[in-house]
Amino acid sequence: MKKNLGSLPAVYPMPVLMIGTYDENGKTDVMNAAWGQICDYDKIFISLSEDHKTCANFLKTKAFTVALADADHLAEADWFGTVSGNDTEDKFERTGMHAEKSEFVNAPVIAEFPLTMECELVRVLETDGIYGAIGRIVNVKAEESILNAEGKVDIGKTNFAMFDQFSNAYYGTGEKLANAWDIGVSRFG
Ligand SMILES: Cc1cc2nc3c(=O)[nH]c(=O)nc-3n(C[C@H](O)[C@H](O)[C@H](O)COP(=O)(O)O)c2cc1C
Fold it and tell me: Nearest residue CA, atom 15 of ligand 1?
């Protein structure tokens, strides 16, 4: 028996993305975004509320970074999603995290997050109440500790967080379940 739940954003898991930007004075801001996803091999789309400090920042700098929050930094990630740089002057500094300028774009790389996409703003989409930023991923910076022998990200060495938008909670990534483009054909092909 199925029940109708009405209109809901019913996708799980959602990512816990940390959008890093500079304001006009080079001050770091970071916000939490669950509504973001890869939309091309080298592009990422983030759906935003237009009044965020983050939006004012990337419109000026034409750049942002996107880090994946991990379980070790959930309180910081949640803080970045709870208060705004518009009214909390020391939003980033209060966490004690460290930022350095990306080598590739005019946006901060947060040292404590193990994986960061460095993006240049290529387009802002405004349509039907949706405001979104599309960034071109010009580089991915990753801690060596999360890479395998071939230099690729090894998810087994990470503890990236996932967001459950049904109950507004964070979950950890579990063990690997199966290989993609493989388990289906293995069973049904
Ligand atoms: C788990 C979580 C997910 C969020 N996802 C989004 C999102 O996808 N888009 C958005 O505009 N705001 C999202 N927010 C809210 C912003 O992160 C929040 O309003 C933040 O204060 C904006 O910061 P800023 O004004 O310094 O840019 C989320 C917050 C949390 C806690």
Answer: 81
Of all protein residues, whose CA lies closest to atom 23 belonging to ligand 1? Answer: 84
What are the residue boundaries of the structural domains of the chain, listed by start?
14-188
Give the span between the Cα atoms of 74 and 110, in whole angstroms: 14
Token pair listed for 16 = 């816990």
Q: Say yes or no: CB of residue 139 within 6 Å of ligand 1.
A: no
The reply to whether CATH 2.30.110.10 applies to domain 14-188 is: yes
Q: Assess whether pLDDT exceeds 80 at residue 56.
A: yes
User: Do the beta carbons of residue 162 and residue 14 sit within 8 Å?
Assistant: yes
Nearest to 114 by CA among 172, 72, 59: 72
Closest atom of ligand 1 to CA, residue 48: 11
Residue 47 Cβ contacting ligand 1 at under 6 Å: yes
For residue 179, what pLDDT is reported?
83
* DSSP code for 175: -
pLDDT tens-digit readout, 70-116: 999 999 999 999 999 999 999 999 999 999 999 999 999 999 999 99
User: What's the pTM value of the predicted model, to 2 decimals?
Assistant: 0.96
Among residues 6, 2, 62, 16, the alpha carbon closest in space to that of 173 is found at 16
Number of Cα atoms under 13 Å in the Cβ half of residue 165: 13
Place of tokens 């790389």: 109
